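Q: Got a minute? One more chain.
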Amino acid sequence: MTRRRLTLRSQLTLLYAVPFTLTGTVLVTVSLLAGRESVPAGAGLPPAPDPAGTGFPVGPWAVLMAVLVLVSLILGRLVADRFLRPVRAITATARDISASDLHRRLGDIGGPDEFAELAATLDDLFRRLETAFAAQRQFIANASHELRTPLTAERALLQVALADPGVTVGSLQEACREVLQLGAAQERLLEALFALASGEQGVEGRQSCDLADLTRAVLRSRPSTGLTVETRLDPAPVAADPRLVQSLIANLVDNAVRHNVPGGRIEVETGAAGGAARLAVRNSGPVVPPAEVDRLFEPFQQLHRERTRHGDGHGLGLAIVRAITTAHHAALVVTAPEAGGLDITVTFP
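A: Always. Here it is, folded:
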């Protein structure tokens, strides 16, 4: 059988009442003893029996003790209620906020500094929760749009091909090729979403690897794009998840290729210093306003906010980079040169 614990209100009541009772008992006992000694022998009525041998009548002492205990409990309850009033206000308001409206805040509760600090902490928590839920809703809406668009296009292509009375083998083959291209775009999107989810889950197992080797493998797998690629791949050993780190490098390189200019350049460097491994990717490209840099690392965000996609990008590459960087407790530094493009450096501890 589970033992029922006292409520905080009852515990505080006893905490306040017991010292009051003990202090009162000492004072009453001392007063009675002093009064007993000050009364002349034989004066007045004979004292009440004193079976305990305390030297003074038991009756008055017992009555005083009962009154003292009762008064102590009442005072203890009043003090406990006064002390817990801000807690009850915080609890009720926080419950209402979490159940119905994250826009509300506790604000000034009018209690002691400690309770005001607690309210401010909860307000900050509600603010971050509201931001996180808004970002989650936006992410779901964007992901739904990105997945729905190719499905709608595939359906339209197939319906047009089936409804065309003069359909030929060549037109059917062309429709099939377009459906395959749309399917490949969906596959890339799902792979990007999986990489993003994997990066946000954290690193379960770390292995010894070299950023230089992983970068070479990524660059070898990328076809020539007409861009000038400059590399300086010095050894950069690190304890990390090689699969996630390779995905980070691939997304940085792909971002540098995709958001570049004709005849542009890409610089990729790796190295180690002070016990840390460093990866740097720089690229030419359109000018990025400094105020827009942070937004580019949010899911489904690109420099230009329109929905029309140019190329095969979905706006997930830099979000994946940030998630993997955070999972490895690495430092991510991004600058936007005035000439255009981005300079991105990731430093692994």
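A: Strands lie at 207-210, 228-233, 237-240, 265-273, 276-283, 331-335, 342-348.
Q: Perfect, thanks.
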